[in-house]
Write a structure and sequence with these properties.
It is built from two helices and seven strands. By secondary structure, the protein is largely without helices or strands. The chain is elongated and about 60 Å long.
Length: 258
């Protein structure tokens, strides 16, 4: 697993280090965005846009593929529907940004701030360890493993130690992701697919897991205190004693445990 995650990070780094560093400032970005339209996108592809305040801007008619966006501020910006594949996004600020229906593949988004961001319908494969996704909207997101592209091994989403407290993950797919010690407290996971996910040490306290699918997951030391387990599927659980907090969970009698 470590080898695969390293490969994802290496891909992102190589694409950015080979790019021509433009070092645009906010004013230059604004000029390019102002001139852009649907047929003539603002060319920000594979550009160095690190450490820039790009908040409250509309990037829906821009090309940001493969760009280096580390530590930049996109607070309240609109990036809906963009292809951000192979971009470098570590420590970026996407708080309150619109990232709905975006594609983010093969990237490193570690320690990024995506609190209150709209990621509904997005597609993500990469590393998002220690990211802040508190109160974010991930409904209908497709962050499951890419089973069609396995030349480098299993390509999956990694959200170890991520903060998803209060987030909406309803109807999202995290098939075979790794989410060790992630914080899902007070999150909404109605009909969420968590098939084969590593959830060891995760915290689901007071979360809504109604009709969620946790088949084949690693639930060692996972906390379900106060969680709503109405219709939650736990197929493959051999030892319920490893599931912490079941005695205080809600609708445990309606959970599907075998």
């Amino acid at each position: 697993m470590k080898k695969i995650l390293f490969s994802l990070e290496l891909i992102s780094t190589l694409f950015c280090t080979t790019a021509i560093a433009a070092d645009f400032d906010r004013l230059e970005v604004e000029k390019r965005l102002a001139k852009a339209d649907k047929t003539h996108l603002a060319d920000l592809k594979r550009k160095d846009l690190t450490d820039i305040d790009l908040s409250n801007l509309n990037f829906t008619q821009a090309d940001l593929w493969g760009s280096d966006l580390r530590r930049s501020n996109f607070n309240h910006s609109n990036l809906s529907g963009l292809n951000l594949d192979l971009s470098v996004l570590s420590k970026v600020n996407f708080s309150y940004a619109d990232l709905s229906n975006t594609s983010i593949f093969g990237v490193h988004v570690g320690s990024a701030n995506l609190s209150n961001a709209n990621l509904s319908g997005s597609r993500f494969i990469g590393v998002m360890d220690k990211a802040n996704l508190s109160n974010a909207n991930l409904s209908h997101a497709v962050w499951g493993a890419d089973m069609k592209n396995q030349s480098m091994g299993l390509m999956r989403a990694s959200l170890n130690n991520a903060n998803l407290s209060g987030a909406d993950l309803s109807y999202a797919n995290f098939d075979r992701a790794t989410m060790r010690y992630a914080n899902f407290s007070n999150a909404k996971l109605h009909n969420t697919v968590l098939f084969g996910v590593d959830l060891s040490g995760a915290d689901f306290s007071n979360a809504d897991l109604s009709n969620a699918d946790l088949t084949g997951t690693n639930l060692e030391e996972t906390n379900f205190s106060g969680a709503n387990l109405d219709g939650t599927r736990f197929a493959g659980v051999k030892d319920k004693s490893k599931l912490k907090g079941l005695n205080t969970s809600i609708n445990l009698d309606k959970a599907l445990i075998d």
